[in-house]
Design goal:
Layout (H helix, E strand, L loop, with lengths): L2 E7 L2 E7 L1 E4 L2 E4 L3 E6 L2 E9 L1 H17 L7 H25 L6 E8 L7 E5 L5 E3 L6 E5 L5 H7 L6 H16 L9 E7 L5 E6 L1 H21 L6 H5 L2
Antiparallel strand pairs: 1-2, 1-10, 2-11, 3-4, 5-6, 6-7, 7-8, 8-9, 11-12
């Protein structure tokens, strides 16, 4: 499984992706978060789904990046191109994939800022090639194992949150997922994009580097639960 999180806030973008690959009892690491820059056209891309679909789509997309990306003015144009590539791969491979019992599945998050974008943009592309924009009303998207990491983001994150706050809540969202399942784990790749910078800040973190943050959060959660009002439990506990 995969955990990839994209956050779009007023001051920029934050992307976080785990690197764990599982196959039966075997585990390995592979990058799932990629960054690209051609002159002022800057974007990241994350995927979750069938690896064969991802590899073929990315091979085709690399040609677009090399030959046409610099000519585009807005992020959605690159998103449209990736959507068309997914449709092409679907025509070529969907029947054979589904006849073997697998699902034609690839969800993709693309975010960045091109030379004619007045602000950073982020999109979720579905396996069928259509897409939706991530807007300020719901400023994040998770692809892959999404259930465990959403609550903290939905309770705390807003479009006006700072990049630092988004980064912290994003990590805690990943950490909630990591401790709940065995197919999401370190190392994690983090990308930060500051509005109008046309540059990325990138870093890979190992478990040992952030273990103290996980322990701090676990201790604070335990202490907070003990402080939750419990007068409502008295009648229940006294009942026979």
């Amino acid at each position: 499984m995969t955990y990839c999180l994209g956050i779009r806030i007023k001051s920029g973008l934050v992307a976080l992706a785990d690197t764990r690959l599982t196959s039966g009892t075997d585990t390995a690491s592979a990058r799932k978060l990629y960054t690209y820059k051609r002159e002022q056209n800057t974007f990241f891309l994350m995927t979750s789904g069938l690896r064969s679909v991802r590899d073929k789509a990315m091979t085709y997309f690399e040609e677009f990046i090399e030959e046409e990306l610099v000519e585009k003015g807005k992020v959605y144009e690159a998103v449209n191109e990736f959507g068309e590539i997914l449709k092409k791969v679907g025509k070529e491979d969907k029947h054979s994939i589904e006849s073997s019992g697998l699902s034609f599945n690839l969800h993709t998050v693309i975010g960045g800022q091109f030379k004619n974008d007045h602000e950073p943009k982020m999109y979720l592309v579905y396996p069928e090639g259509n897409w939706v924009e991530i807007t300020e009303g719901y400023p994040f998207v998770i692809i892959g194992n999404s259930g465990y990491g959403k609550p903290i983001l939905k309770r705390t994150l807003t479009y006006n949150s700072s990049i630092k706050f988004a980064l912290k809540t994003g990590f805690l969202s990943f950490d909630s997922t990591r401790v709940s399942v065995n197919d999401v784990g370190y190392p994690i790749d983090v990308v930060i994009y500051k509005r109008d910078s046309h540059e990325f800040i990138e870093r890979r973190y190992e478990d040992k580097e952030l273990h103290y943050v996980s322990e701090f959060w676990a201790d604070k959660l335990s202490a907070a639960i003990k402080q939750v009002p419990d007068d409502w439990t008295e009648d229940l506990l006294r009942s026979k």
